[in-house]
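Notes from hallway chat w/ T.B., transcribed later so I don't forget. T.B. wanted the structure written out for a chain they're using in a teaching module, and asked if we could keep both sequence and structure tokens in one place. Agreed to drop them here.
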Amino acid sequence: MPKTLKTLSYLLIFFPMMLFAQINESDTLKIKANLSLTGFWQGGNVETVIFRAKSDFSFIPFRNWVFKTNNSYVYQEFGKEKADEDILSLNFLYLNPDRKIYPLLLGFVSTNFRRKIDRRYMVGAGVTFKVLNKKNHWLKFSISSEYERTDFSQATFNRTSYNGDPIINTVRGTIWIYGKYELIEGKLILSHESYYQPSLQQSDNYRWRSDIGLALPLWKFLDFKINYLNTFESLVIENQKQEDQILTFGFTLKSY
């Protein structure tokens, strides 16, 4: 495993408040954090490394407000050659999340080695609707709008109308669906977070992401985790595939 990946792994383990998973912002605890480390390794004739870290940290800075930061890191290597390195940071500020409908502000930062995205920034606002809100079962929908800037390292795309400029700016609308459910009380937990993001200015520029986890609690603060990630982007660098899927296995550490 590369030195940079080892260093990041240590940071993820010792500083989980910097990273992503599934925390309900409506919870009354002032501070909550968890960390998931999953992956896959194969040696021998075919050497493969897939490493994924997700963590979530939330706290109540003052009455009626909740700040939550969700971060993830994905690294893939085949035959000792780096195939992907993906960083995604989702940051939210909620007002009155104990209500059935409440507003939010958001800011995203991401990079993606395989898709040749040097930087992507998004800022926006929206509103969340609670559909189900119980201690061990909850389901929420959100609608938001964001301004986005993406800096690619190349300027030749699968859609030729975008060729020539590596910087693409647009305004997006986003539909979010996220939830968590106990399928078998205390023994099997399903969580999911998905979003669909079309551009409001360019009909051929859209994306989606679906992150599904299945957890088997081993201890109050430790779960065995199976994670499936599916991502799609309509606008990519020429000759790249638009869709990616990753299935990983590992553990989740929790502070609650």
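Follow-up for T.B.: The radius of gyration is 19 Å. Might be a good example for the class.
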